[in-house]
Amino acid sequence: MFSAYLLHLADNALILGHRNSEWTGHGPVLEQDIALSNIALDLIGQSRNLYQLAADQLNALSPDKKPVTEDDLAYLRDATAFKNVVLVEQPNGDWAQTILRQFYFSQFQLLQFGALLRSKEPGLAAISEKSIKEIRYHVKWSSEWVCRLGDGTAESHSRMLNALEALNPLIPELFTAADYELSSASGGQGVDPADLKGNWLKPVNQILETATLPLYIFENKKRSVLSGKNGFHSEHLGYILAEMQFLQRAYPGCTW
Amino acid sequence: MEKEKIISILEAVMDPEIPVLSIADLGILRDVEISGNDVIITVTPTYSGCPAMEVIRQEIRELLSKNGYPNVKINQVLSPAWTSEWMSASGREKLEAYGIAAPAINHSCTLDGSGTDRPDHCPLCRSRNIELISRFGSTSCKALYRCLDCLEPFDYFKCH
User: Fold this and answer.
1) Cβ of A35 and B80 within 8 Å?
2) Which of A33, A225, A232, B129 is buried most deeply by CB count within 10 Å?
């Protein structure tokens, strides 16, 4: 179960990293193109560290099987085996939607990895210690952009409203624990995301308020049928994997 | 001593993205151990996704092999996480001479992010009249600033 938890953390970082990398060469201005590419690099770096740790755990569980590597985990699993939240696989949309997705996720990841600093698994605590310095920077950057767009022109404000409408329904999944999150939390290796809700809402709403945007409210609506954490993804993930995994599928074991 | 000799050989391994800084100047060379015929080098990345790490690993191997140490093991550690405070004083000077502002030395490198993370002055004309262009620069470890006196843009090695 703990290896599933590590895969979940790794998949979140890899898929969002990949989405951000789609902006490389297409950013609205050069500096921001570079910013998102750098954030993509941080996330993909984090995912590598997490996949390596997951591979170690999986190999320790099955010493008789051929060892898996970080590359097998990233490139040779199908969509239903991916455990990332649906939020991170959403298409980039416009700049506002990309910014809001990063803002919501980075605020969440900051708390999640903050709690994982105390993980009983030293490898995961070390990855958290490393990653959190990067995440803090992502939070700063995306918060500034939320304010700039929300409190910007009529056009940028209305685009942020559209982004809120598109992404807000995907937020409850972040805080709804999958079985592997609960078991890892009770074992002291992981964290129950439900415990992070209050600490997420406060800074998020502070920024939304500064940005003159509607605040986020947790509603007790019927739950979505989608649950990326459990492998039930939106249609978008398949397309990402088709692009990301093509080379390894077409030329197995290919390296450069 | 053998260990000092290896450390001095590794002085020639530069960060490929900032070629005036050695891995020791940067503080990413954490340890050198000798165990029988093996040399065990411990390094830590600056940023999780830093692409320079692969090149650095390769250079360590090549250089040591040329100097009579063919059996090299390279360990990567993540904790304690690298901080820009580990950059040596001579590294900071070389960085400035190269035109990159050195990272601030204050509380901003701590985990809670308090403190001011900005360059002290323009590395070209030393003016303190500077402004941020972008929080991100040409590599993960840099941000982009502009000097309002000499008007030149310059890189800042971020506090991390």
Assistant:
1) no
2) A33
